[in-house]
Each structure stands twice: as structure tokens, then as C-alpha cells.
Amino acid sequence: MVKKKCFFGIKTDRQVDGDKMNAKLSQEVLAQGGENAAINACMQCGTCSGGCPNAERMDLLPRSLVLMVQRGEWEKVLKSQTLWLCSSCHTCTSRCPRGVRPTDVIEAVKAIAIREGIKNDSVRFNQIFVELIEKRGILFEPELMLKYGGLKALVDQAELGIKLTLKGKLSPFPPKVKEPKKFSEALTKAVKK
Ligand code: SF4
Ligand code: SF4
């Protein structure tokens, strides 16, 4: 039996032996912008998971997600809800004692999942959001609500919408950008980048 490498002499079953690492997924992550993610430096201490504000709702905690990437467990990683629950707050990244960047790992895996055509409500939401921004240059929340959740979502949120409108926080009419031409040019530039 191969003896596990220990950290400060403490044996941990969480750490992946070199021979169990599968570099394919790690390399994909590197190629998708995770070049500074330092995936292999992870010692599975769990500090990232401990500080994550969205951990309660995640099916794979940041620590586990990094482990799955090391092991090359594509299916578990790509189907994980964690990808869509991460709010990119960078708390995990700023706290990691080994310089691993779980946020970058998650962002990269998310890009791979989108490329692989993984269906997810968050992807649909993001697509609708981008479409509406491209169309008007500014978000009209009731329109987003209608496109994303249908008439039922709009009716369900009507009371809140009215309250927000009365407080001047929501416009009952679609707002307009002041300089649509400039906005369109900036958008084209950003997309090219
Ligand atoms: S804090 Fe860093 S080293 Fe610890 S489990 Fe998370 S990614 Fe790995
Ligand atoms: S970046 Fe994502 S995974 Fe990391 S702490 Fe924030 S929400 Fe959690």
C-alpha cells in the first residue's frame, strides 16, 4: 500500500496521492483561465469551505470541488450546483493558506460546463440577462422576470414590484441609456476582448 504524504505529520485521507491525480481536467481548468489556480497545491484543509458564505446550499464545497478536479471526476464537477451558487466573492481564495484559487477553479469549470452544453437555470438566467442588456443597454426588471419565470413569476412578484415603484426604486416603464451609441460601441469592444 502506498503511504500517504502527510502535512505536519497528520495523515489525511482527503489528500490525493500523486498516482490518483488525473491531469486532464486540471489542464482544461488551466486552459480556461485557471492558470494561477495552483490546484495541485491544495492540502484539503477546508479553510475555503469554512469561510464560504454560500456553502450551506452547495452540493460540493470548494474544498471538495478542488479535490474532484484533481481526481479528474468530470461528471461530478460539471453537474455540481456549486458552479452556479458561487458568487465569486473570492473569500476562499483570499483565505487559502496554500495560494490555491478556488474561485478561479470554479469560474473555469463553469466555462467548461457552458461549453459542454450543460443545461442549468442559472445559465438560462444569465443568457436572458445578457440578451436584455444588449437590447436596451439597461435592465428592465419586470421584463427579466417575465422572460425567466413567465407570467406566474411576474404576478407572484407584483406586490413587491408595486412597493418598489412607489418608493421610486423601480421604474414602471423601460428605462433608456443616455447615450445608446456609446454604449453599443463599449459593448462591442468588451465582446471582442
Ligand atoms: S483552503 Fe486552499 S488548501 Fe485548504 S482546502 Fe481550500 S483550496 Fe485546499
Ligand atoms: S468565491 Fe465562491 S466558493 Fe469561494 S467563498 Fe465565495 S462563494 Fe464560496
From TrEMBL:
Pfam family, one: Fer4_8
Entries under SUPFAM superfamilies matching the protein: alpha-helical ferredoxin
GO molecular function: 4 iron, 4 sulfur cluster binding; metal ion binding; oxidoreductase activity
The organism's place on the tree of life at top rank: Bacteria
4Fe-4S ferredoxin-type domain ranges (all copies): 35-63
Keywords of this entry: 4Fe-4S, Iron, Iron-sulfur, Metal-binding, Oxidoreductase
An example Gene Ontology CC term for this record: plasma membrane
Identification of the protein by name: 4Fe-4S dicluster domain-containing protein
Organism: Gomphosphaeria aponina SAG 52.96 = DSM 107014
